[in-house]
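ok trying this again, last paste got cut off
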Amino acid sequence: MTALVKAGIGALVLGAALVAAFPSGAQEVPEVALQIEQNRFQPEEIRVKAGQAFVLVITNKDKGPEEFESKDLRIEKVIPAGKTVRLRMPALKAGSYAFVGEYHEKTAKGRIIVE
């Protein structure tokens, strides 16, 4: 058996193992985009489904850092200037969860509405 054939068989085995480990659709988690620009969150209101986990993708377009903080959700995360941070959110109960940008609390405000 040549080295090329052995490498091909190895690649097929690895591919089959990856397909078995991550069945299609089972790992899909919806993403919700949130931006920080001019010391404000955009959009200020996010709507998600109750009982479904999601990933909050926060991009800070400002020149300084901002901290995403939600006392309701017990989350604090600094978002460096010009960077994007992904926060995996748990499945939430229906309700309204407030968040602020701790460095600019007067302008950076928002709410996650879980329906």
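PB: full thing came through this time. The first helix runs from residue 3 to 21.
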